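Q: Could you fold this chain for me?
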Amino acid sequence: MARGARRRGVRPRRARRGGLYVRGGRRAAAELLGGAARAGGAGDGGADDGAAGRGDRPTAVFCANDLAAIGFMAEADARGVRVPEDISVAGFDGIELGTYVRPALTTLTTAPRLLGAEAARLLLAAVEGPDAGASPGAGSAVPAVAQADIEPARLLVRASTGPVPR
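A: Sure. Below is the predicted structure, expressed as structure tokens.
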């Protein structure tokens, strides 16, 4: 992903581990937005906990899931950082809650039921033997994962993303 971003002129930064829940998103935002004023929030270490200053602030973040992105937006708001005017935020999941937060969350959405069904099919094929769930013409040397039929994710652009801040 980083290589593709660089080809498009985007300078990706190192990933931050915050966690997969709202609190983790807040923690990641506290680290990335550390120099911004803080109006309050749970358990993140204070107004400036060694995070990047205003000049080092990213222009966009992509969170591991929508709950983390919602937490990131909440902490950004608490620190006076406007979404999407100062920073764009996107998540991954497409959970319904993302449509109710303000600004509404941009997200990559998948089909979890279809993913689960495909995972179950692959698991059963692996348990039954290398040739049991193979596609026609597929040899047993091809790993089952290479034969997965997964629907691509769809980007739902909402109000949490915008032009790069100047």
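A (continued): The longest strand covers residues 88-93.
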